[in-house]
Specification:
heterodimer; A: alpha/beta; Rossmann fold; five-stranded parallel beta sheet; two-stranded antiparallel sheet; 4 helices; 7 strands; globular; B: Beta-Lactamase; Heat Shock Protein 90; five-stranded antiparallel beta sheet; 12 strands; 23% strand
Chain lengths: 130, 355
């Protein structure tokens, strides 16, 4: 919206976030970067369905770590197994991350559009699959 | 006085034995009625005397204890350690008060163990040094401690959860403002909404800092500034290579009621410097410093080497919300505020904090 990042343009992304308004904001931010949000999930179950759907041609996913008490890790695992790059957004700080995912780029909540854009540029742009 | 007088006289031999017997009976009486379990051992750890409380505590009759080793009253796993301790005690005999050595365990006749505290007193006798041990069962105290610790841990968890939710709610408010701004093309409206988002984000960051540092009574303000400052620079789309930001904080912790106004003041002043201080590609630096002036005084300053505050910018009755907030929040902090308008532009605040 306010910034147009050529290198994020056209990326097909999955958003997993249980807080409706934050998910909406994330969607608008991503569309502002020129990304294509192909799925928004608020639960592990829905997120897993998206993560397993190869027809979505995902370029990446933005995952909230805590989904109403459930942890997002099964989705994270499914996506990394498939080679889809992911980033985490968490309000629990980096120390709260499971050690097996500690290397995943992570954005601390609250974040602004610019924080998100910077993280995505470094984490996803180089993984573009198409 | 009269006892003293008697001692000076040389009593006949029969009286000495009688006196000794009397004194020993009195000693046994004191030991027997002591509220602690008491066990007297010889230098090779053989039990020579126990009191009623010791029988009750360990579940033995005294006939089962006398003549046996003190080791039978301690669990197998700590016996080697106890032998070491006994050697150390005899190398340097002297009273060891109860509770001076934590982590002692007792073993009952029925095989159950209990945490205990042990006090040792050496007694010099004609058969060598004896040790009188006073033993207290601290199971109840241990249980109470565990209960208190569990309650404290629960309090910490709940407090953490509350801060976390406050922060989540602030993020939801920020999302609403963001969504609102995405619906308009009016640059001035977008700017107002962005500034509001920054203010809310800086409050949310205070709670984030509290949550991640696990210390809910005070905010690590250096940690807060380290996350606030870079995101402000990027929110005004300023190239960090053109206007650099330096945060200098000595270890400085603020109570939450000081941290929130302080955080908002820094937010406004950095924003102000980014918006007006460096026009037309001017290069420079913004500096934030925070340190204790004394145990209960903190000095905070935000300075920049930009173009400076114009003389017509009023501080007290400012027309901009940003500067109004700065003066009002400084009042809330009971801060003395000094302002230099240029070379460098500096806002300095000194305010009291509870030490």
């Amino acid at each position: 919206m306010m910034t147009q990042a050529a290198s994020l343009h056209g990326l097909r992304l999955l958003v997993v976030e249980d807080e409706t308004l934050v998910a909406m904001m994330l969607e608008v931010m991503l569309e502002g970067f020129g990304c294509d949000v192909v799925g928004v999930a608020g639960t592990v179950k829905r997120g897993l369905a998206y993560a397993s759907d190869e027809s979505l041609n995902l370029d990446g996913a933005i995952l909230d770590v805590n989904l109403g008490g459930e942890e997002v890790y099964p989705i994270a695992q499914r996506l990394t197994d498939r080679g889809v790059p992911i980033v985490f957004c968490t309000g629990y700080g980096l120390k709260g991350l499971s050690p097996s995912f500690a290397h995943i780029p992570t954005l601390a909540k609250p974040y602004l559009a610019e924080d998100l854009e910077g993280l995505l540029l470094s984490a996803l742009a180089s993984h573009r699959s198409h | 006085m009269s006892r003293h007088g008697q001692a000076l006289k040389k009593p006949p031999p029969a009286n000495i034995e009688l006196a000794l017997e009397k004194s020993e009976a009195r000693f046994r009486g004191v030991v027997e009625s002591a509220p602690y379990a008491m066990v007297m051992t010889s230098s090779d750890s053989v039990i020579e005397m126990v009191n009623a409380e010791a029988e009750r505590l360990f579940g033995y009759d005294r006939s089962e204890l006398l003549g046996r080793s003190f080791e039978m009253l301690t669990p197998e796993r700590v016996r080697e350690e106890r032998r070491e301790q006994r050697r150390a005690f005899y190398a340097n005999p002297g009273p060891r008060p109860i509770g001076s050595r934590p982590g002692e365990w007792g073993l009952r006749k029925d095989g159950t163990e209990f945490p205990m505290e042990l006090g040792l007193n050496p007694l010099e006798t004609e058969d060598g040094i004896k040790v009188l041990s006073a033993i207290v069962d601290i199971s109840d105290r241990r249980r109470q401690e565990e209960h208190i610790n569990a309650a404290l841990k629960e309090k910490e968890l709940l407090l953490g959860e509350v801060h976390h939710r406050v922060k989540n709610n602030l993020q939801v408010i920020q999302s609403l403002l963001y969504l609102q701004s995405s619906k308009t093309r009016d640059e001035s409206v977008i700017r107002i909404l962005t500034e509001s988002q920054n203010r809310i984000k800086s409050m949310a960051l205070i709670y984030q800092t509290l949550y991640t540092s696990k210390d809910f009574s005070r905010v690590d303000f250096g940690m807060f500034l380290d996350s606030l400052a870079p995101s402000l620079v990027s929110s005004y789309s300023v190239d960090p290579g053109r206007v650099s930001l330096a945060v200098r904080t000595a270890a400085c912790f603020l109570p939450i009621d000081a941290a929130i106004p302080c955080g908002l003041i820094v937010n406004e002043l950095i924003s102000n410097a980014l918006k007006y201080g460096f026009p037309e590609g001017r290069r420079g630096q913004i500096e934030v410093e925070l340190a204790h002036a004394s145990d209960n005084q903190v000095v905070m300053s935000v300075s920049d080497n930009g173009v400076g505050l114009a003389e017509d910018v009023a501080l007290e009755n400012s027309k901009t919300l940003g500067l109004q907030l700065v003066t009002l929040l400084a009042e809330q902090l009971h801060a003395e505020m000094d302002v230099s308008r240029a070379n460098p532009t500096r806002f300095r605040f000194q305010f009291p904090v509870a030490s």
